[in-house]
Design a protein that fits this description.
This protein is an alpha/beta fold. It is built from 13 helices and 20 strands. The strands form five sheets. Strands 3, 4, 5, 12, 17, 18, 19 and 20 form an eight-stranded mixed sheet that branches. Strands 7-6-10-11 form a four-stranded parallel sheet. The protein has a four-stranded antiparallel sheet with strand order 13-16-14-15, sandwiched between helices. Helix 8 links the parallel strand 6 (about 225-230) and strand 7.
Length: about 475
Amino acid sequence: MVSLPDAPPWAPYRPAADGPRDEAFNADGTWRAHVATALRDVGVADLEGVMAELADGSRRAGLSFPIDGGTELFHVDPIPRVVTAAEWETIAAGVAQRARALDAFVADVHGPRRAVAEGVVPERLIATAEHHEPAARALPPPAGVWVAMAGLDLVQGADGAFAVLEDNARTPSGIAYMLAARALVQAVLGLDAVPARPLDDTIPRLKATLAAAAPPGRATDTINLVVLTDGPGSAAYWEHRTLAVHFDAPLVTSSDLTLDARDRLVLRDAPQRPIDVIYRRTDSSSLHHKAHLGLDRALRAGTVGVVNAFGTGVADDKLTHAYLEDLIRFHLGEEPVLRSVPTFDLANPDHLQEALDRLEELVVKPRGGAGGHGVVICPHAEPDVIAATRAAIEAAPGAYVAQELVALSTHPTVVDGKLQPRHVDLRPFALLTPETTHVLPGALSRVALKEGSIVVNSSQDGGAKDTWVLP
């Protein structure tokens, strides 16, 4: 067994004896060997000083997001999360498999709908999905890939196995934050290198994925790429701006775009060079939104590729998650590598009755929600909130899903100047091209900073950790 120094900050850390699985501590009170080995060269004498350094670094990088009319600094915790090579092998295989199934499902939704015809999913899943875009059926992506990028939310339960809590296939955020967390944590810990798989290939991989979405016949080394944003008011604007800089690509809003005489999208101030690929980071998934004026004509003409393609919102739907294991079997002919957190289709009378009978034990989510908004964690909720949730479900069962509550694992996190256990999830990213599926060798770990909270979103007092995937 490798021991960490018997000194602050490591020595005082103890997760709750009757709490959920702790990713750094064994049940017998010893540090997990892979964590101790990875952290043995990390000396953190002054946690408050390190937190101040991280905040200064975030401020200098402009690492913030708008919230409630103001601006919030993105919180990065200095204690990295350590994932073993064996754990990552399963995660990467499962994430890649799931991304391929999501892409196949979206293609099927906008094609023959075999999954509906053969009873794998109910037709109402598609018809009632908040972000379903029927017009996308006539506008398939020119390179053939609907979900070029997927970001999955994974949680680790009491048995140590990872399961998928949610699938994100419209405009998943987090890659730039993942890179920022690595740079900031490595700097404040004073490490020349971290004992983890490098993230240096992230931007080239992402840029190549975007280039592969261009219409056929484009030379990949001369792809004209733009990043489309709603502007500074977007919650992820920092990421939009940062990735545009990394890509050496213009960051644009819809007002910067127009169509030429050949139905090619061009920049108003540079109309001589048609745009080949749009990395779409707008909040709306609708083709008819003002942010997407002219895109339908360009897509119909086959002159531009969009990542992710319009139509992927149906894969984001929380109800799709309930059927994804079956969709993996149907579309890929494989058994799921990663399990889904069990999810109830409340429009199914049997599922509805079971969920209502056990509502106090479950988590209820609006089907089209994001960012943790509208989620009711019934075991932690007041009776009046549970009663209101029950009434809402009974009035419109098809608008919600219910999930089993997972006792999210905890990880040492700096709170009030000392290490305390806080719940974490994991967002790895898959990149798809017509030829390859690649899972980035790292992830964004999100952490709930409030004691006992399992809501990790930044907009609800969450933060991030660097994730060290061991070689």
